[in-house]
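quick q for whoever's on today - can somebody do inverse folding on this one?? i tried earlier but teh output was garbage lol. C-alpha cells:
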C-alpha cells in the first residue's frame, strides 16, 4: 500500500501542518504503508533553517523535496510566491516523476507507476493549504491514483471573510470554481469538524469524513515535573502563565489580548500575582503584537520551539490562549486546541464565541470563551489567576476531552481505514476507533 503525502512543509519544520503530517506519515509507515512525502526545501525549523536536502529519510518515511522559493512567512507577497513555485514544482513531480524509483520491486515503466498493485492503487493526500495544492492530487488521479484532500480551512470563504478577496471578486469566483472541481472529484475529503463537513457537502464534496486534528497524547501529557522545569527555564516565578503557542496568523486577532495585558500590568490580580502572557511562534501578525506590547513587562516572546521541548513548555503554562476572528468562525479549526487539551491545560478562547470550538469547550468544561473585549479578557484572566482549583478542574476535563476525541493514535488510525478504502484494500482492522 503506497501513499504520497503532499504539503509545502514537513519535518523538521515546526508549522502545525508539518507536525500533523509528520505524525500521520510515521504512523502509516509503522502500520506497513510505503510512505513518501513531497514537500518544499525551505525550512524554519530551529537549528535547520534555510534549504533542506532534496531527498532524505525520516525513519521509514521517504522525503522528496522540490526546489521552490523561500521568501518566508513574514509578508504576504513572499508567501504567495513561495506557494506558487511549490505548487508548480509539486505538480511537475506528480506529472513526470517515477514515484516508484528505488523500490525493491524495481523501476516502473513510464506511465505505469500509478497503477494498482497487490497493495491496491496508490493514494495521494493533499492538504488544502496552499489552496490550489489539491490540483496536484487531481493530476495524480488522472494517472490512476486515489486522491484525498485534507481540508484545513475553507477557500475562498476564509479569504473573503478576512478581507483578502472581495465578495464576488474574480479571485473569489476562481477559487470557488477550483474548490467545486476538487471536492467533486476527490475520492474522499477530510473535514476537521461537523460544521466544516456540512459546508463541504453543500459545496459538492462526494464523500466527507470528519477526522479532527490531533496531538500526541504520550509526548504531550500532564506532567507536573516537566512543568516545573519549564517554568524554571522561563524564569516566570509564581506568575500565572497564559501561553499562546503557534502561528500568529491572519485569521487570529490580538488587539483585545494586548490591551488586556496592558490592563493586567497596571492592575495585577487581586492577590498581587502577575499574569504573564507568553507568545511562542511566528506569523504575519507577530510584528504588530510585538509593537502593541513593546513596553509591557508581563508579555514575552519566543520563537518556535523544537518538538522535544514542547512537553515542558506546554506544562509550564496555567492556561493556553487561542484567538480567532469572529468572521473566521466555522471556516477553520485552530490545531493548537488539541495540544493544550493533551497536556491537561484548559483553553481560553478569545473570539468566535458562537462557533463549534467554543461550544465544545463549554460543553466539556475544558475552558472559557470571551469576546474581543479587553475588559472581559483581563477580568477573566485575573479571576482564573485567583482560582487555581477552578483551573485544575478544567484541566482535568480538558484531558478527558482529549482522550475521547483528539488523541493521535485514534485519529491516525481512522486515517488508515480511510486510505485503505480509497486504495481498494482491507487492512487488518478498519482503523476506526
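ok took a stab at it. sequence:
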Amino acid at each position: 500500500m503506497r501513499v504520497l503525502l503532499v504539503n509545502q512543509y514537513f519535518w523538521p519544520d515546526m508549522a502545525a501542518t508539518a507536525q500533523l503530517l509528520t505524525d500521520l506519515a510515521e504512523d502509516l509507515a509503522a502500520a506497513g504503508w510505503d510512505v513518501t512525502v513531497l514537500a518544499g526545501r525551505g525550512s524554519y525549523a530551529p537549528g535547520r533553517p534555510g534549504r533542506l536536502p532534496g531527498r532524505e529519510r525520516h525513519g521509514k518515511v521517504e522525503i522528496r523535496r522540490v526546489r521552490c522559493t523561500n521568501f518566508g512567512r513574514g509578508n504576504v507577497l513572499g508567501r504567495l510566491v513561495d506557494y506558487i513555485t511549490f505548487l508548480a514544482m509539486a505538480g511537475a513531480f506528480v506529472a513526470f516523476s517515477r514515484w516508484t524509483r528505488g523500490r525493491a520491486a524495481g523501476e516502473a515503466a513510464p506511465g505505469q507507476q500509478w497503477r494498482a498493485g497487490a497493495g491496491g492503487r496508490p493514494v495521494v493526500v493533499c492538504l488544502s493549504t496552499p489552496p490550489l495544492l489539491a490540483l496536484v492530487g487531481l493530476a495524480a488521479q488522472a494517472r490512476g491514483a486515489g486522491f484525498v484532500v485534507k481540508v484545513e480551512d475553507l477557500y475562498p470563504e476564509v479569504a473573503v471573510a478576512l478581507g483578502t478577496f472581495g465578495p464576488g471578486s474574480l479571485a473569489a469566483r476562481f477559487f470557488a470554481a477550483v474548490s467545486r472541481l476538487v471536492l467533486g472529484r476527490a475520492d474522499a475529503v477530510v473535514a476537521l469538524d461537523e460544521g466544516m463537513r456540512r459546508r463541504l457537502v453543500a459545496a459538492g464534496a462526494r464523500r466527507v469524513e470528519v477526522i479532527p486534528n490531533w496531538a500526541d497524547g504520550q509526548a504531550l501529557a500532564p506532567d507536573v515535573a516537566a512543568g516545573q522545569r519549564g517554568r524554571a527555564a522561563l524564569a516566570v516565578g509564581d506568575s500565572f502563565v497564559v501561553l499562546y503557542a503557534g502561528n500568529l496568523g491572519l485569521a487570529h486577532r490580538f488587539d483585545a489580548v494586548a490591551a488586556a495585558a496592558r490592563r493586567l500590568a497596571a492592575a495585577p490580580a487581586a492577590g498581587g500575582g502577575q499574569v504573564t502572557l507568553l507568545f511562542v511562534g511566528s506569523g504575519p501578525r507577530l510584528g504588530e503584537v510585538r509593537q502593541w506590547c513593546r513596553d509591557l513587562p508581563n508579555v514575552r516572546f519566543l520563537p518556535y520551539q523544537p518538538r522535544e521541548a514542547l512537553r515542558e513548555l506546554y506544562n509550564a503554562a496555567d492556561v493556553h490562549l487561542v484567538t480567532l476572528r469572529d468572521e473566521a468562525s466555522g471556516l477553520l479549526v485552530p490545531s493548537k486546541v488539541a495540544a493544550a487539551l493533551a497536556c491537561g491545560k484548559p483553553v481560553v478562547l478569545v473570539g468566535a464565541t458562537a462557533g463549534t470550538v467554543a461550544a465544545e469547550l463549554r460543553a466539556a468544561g475544558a475552558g472559557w470563551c470571551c469576546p474581543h473585549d479587553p475588559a472581559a479578557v483581563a477580568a477573566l484572566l485575573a479571576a482564573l489567576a485567583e482560582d487555581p482549583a477552578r483551573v485544575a478542574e478544567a484541566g482535568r476535563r480538558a484531558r478527558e476531552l482529549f482522550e475521547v476525541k483528539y488523541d493521535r493514535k485514534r485519529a491516525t488510525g481512522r486515517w488508515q481505514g480511510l486510505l485503505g478504502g480509497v486504495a481498494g484494500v482491507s487492512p487488518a482492522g478498519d482503523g476506526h476507533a
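fwiw Residues 219 and 311 are 7 Å apart (CA to CA). also The chain has 15 helices and 16 strands. so keep that in mind when u check it
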